[in-house]
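Dear Dr. L.,

I hope this message finds you well. Following up on our conversation about the binding site, I have prepared a predicted three-dimensional model of the protein together with zinc ion. For your records, I am including the exact sequence and ligand specification that went into the calculation, followed by the structure tokens. Please feel free to forward this to your student if that is useful.
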Amino acid sequence: MQKLGKNLGAYYGETIDIRAVLREIKIAAQTHQWESETIHNHGEFHWIALHRPARTQASLKRIHISAGTHGDEPAGPLAALKLLQENRWPDNVEVFLLPCLNPLGFTLNQRTNAEGIDVNRDYRDPKSAEARTHIAWLQRQPRFDLYLCLHEDWESNGFYLYETNPDARLSFAGEMINAVAPVCPIDWSENIEGRPAQGGIIRPNISPHERLDWPEALYHITHKSRQGYTLEAPSDFPLPARVNALVAAATVAVDCLAKTKT
Ligand SMILES: [Zn+2]
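The resulting structure of the complex is given below.
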């Protein structure tokens, strides 16, 4: 699979009709009996938080999955839709899914929200309605065993992920990369985004208190979840491969979580 060569300085690939994708997400959630809560409204757009209760309380695990934080990364909401449609969730996993955190960004095909704020740098002292809404909702939820943030990178040469696992729990990163490799190229470089990487995995040294522009991941690590992954699909490749990459990584992460002993 070759790079398309479209992303000259920004994302110039396929765009999505976010209104249509959100309608399909709503239908898929209803079909599979998810609970849906509207957490914010702006014009025609309703921000929804979807919840799938576990089917058994034995060995219960909770996961938070978010997508659509950057409006020029269409694979995220499409992957959320596909995960809902495939409906392959282990019985002991309770799922909290935010399928699109920045719908207005998608109407503009831009990274930021409509006011030009990068929502994924706004989780410490939030100024955007998107991050404020998300945090207010998070504060009403239980802690999670795992978080996944679904993203794309317009510059990258393949799929990669960030692992945040400060307590050195059993890592799912290798299995996620193995699951993605058959459906999407992996970025095997030893340096990605200016950070050392190995096998498509970046394990950043995080010190949340030294950083002011928190991405969502730092909020989770500080307040909600001690293990998580930010998935980066390479957006200079065909859109279906990127969606499949995010779905494959998320599916295997959920399976690994379900089997983890507490
Ligand atoms: Zn992103």
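In brief: The longest helix spans residues 239-259.

With kind regards,
A. P.
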